Amino acid sequence: MKKPAQEIDRQGRRHRATRACIGGPTAVASAMVLLAALALAACATKPPKSEPLARAAYEQANDPFEPLNRGIFTFNDTIDGLLFKPIAQGYRYVVPLPARRGLRNALGNLKMPWSFVNALLQGNFHLAGAAVARFIVNATVGVGGLFDPASRLGIPYVDEDLGQTLAVWGMGEGFYVVLPLLGPSSLRDGIGLIGEFFGDPASLAADAANVKGLQAIYLGLELLDAREALLDPYDQLMAESEDPYIAFRSVRRQNRLFKINNGRVAAQTGADPFEDDMFEQEFDADRPDEPQELQEPQADGMTPPPATP
């Protein structure tokens, strides 16, 4: 069984990769409109307390808009197969592994300021300090973040987002929703995603630099790296699941619960919710040509050479 903290890092990048698969103003604006409309509809469709069985089933599924969500899920998968997956496959085929690894390290380091902000808002000063230390070490000794000496020094990767912060503050998950182009989410995480788009220091810095197209390039690189990281897990889950929609919903929910509790979910249940081969893509130095090696830095500081953003 994997250490909980290790899986937080590994799965943290999975979640961020899913979120980042299509980033940009249009997608975020669409998410805002959809979340607002669904929030109003959810209030109207929830079974009354006079129907306890129906209400219990409704709350357990937490997916009041499943028909709509399934349609969006199919739409996203179609667009991905026609556009984003081929681009990611081409990127993996053309760009050498060291270059992909360097990009992933750099993008990951640029996320440390946002993780610092959220760790601070959560009152987790240990993670906040780790985020600052990791950013400084990798930005300097790691040549702008292209390399990851911080992990070798025992400084863990920190992946905290606004959705986790809202959960720590006591906000409920809200209904499950599949956002157009952005993928699986929830009302709480959708709000967090919107906040991140407008508050991520790296994105704000790119915009403030006033260099034409810099923010678009940053978002594009995030998208490219994120989709490449998901090539194998996505295909495997789609191929092995009788109902991919349910499988993605389940994995996503467990992932978020695990992250919000900083790994304590596994300890409480006695099982690691990510003890699934789909996510076990360990780096093997003897097989450098295998794409699976691009993985998240480990919380114990022992990073597989491929760190994720």
Percent strand equals under 5%
The overall pLDDT, averaged over residues, is 77
Helix/strand class = mainly alpha
Neighbour order of strands in the largest sheet = 1-2
Number of helices: 15
Global outline: globular
N-to-C order of helices and strands? HHHHHHHHHEEHHHHHH
Distance between the termini: 24 Å
Rg (CA only)? 19 Å
Identify low-pLDDT runs. 1-12, 14-23, 265-309
Helix proportion range:
55-70%
**What's the number of domains?**
1
What does this structure look like?
The protein has 309 residues and is mainly alpha-helical. It has helices at residues 4-20, 25-45, 52-61, 66-94, 97-110, 112-121, 125-140, 149-152, 162-168, 187-199, 201-208, 214-229, 231-240, 244-260, 264-269; strands at 176-179, 183-186. It has one domain (4-40, 61-293). Helix 11 (201-208) runs antiparallel to helix 12 (214-229). The longest helix is centred in the first third of the chain and has 29 residues, at 66-94. The chain is globular and about 60 Å long. The two termini are 24 Å apart.
List the helices and strands and how they pair.
Blueprint: H1 4-20, H2 25-45, H3 52-61, H4 66-94, H5 97-110, H6 112-121, H7 125-140, H8 149-152, H9 162-168, E1 176-179, E2 183-186, H10 187-199, H11 201-208, H12 214-229, H13 231-240, H14 244-260, H15 264-269
Antiparallel strand pairs: 1-2
Q: What's the gist of this structure?
A:
The chain is mostly helical and 309 residues long.
Features:
309 residues; mainly alpha; two-stranded antiparallel ribbon; disordered N terminus
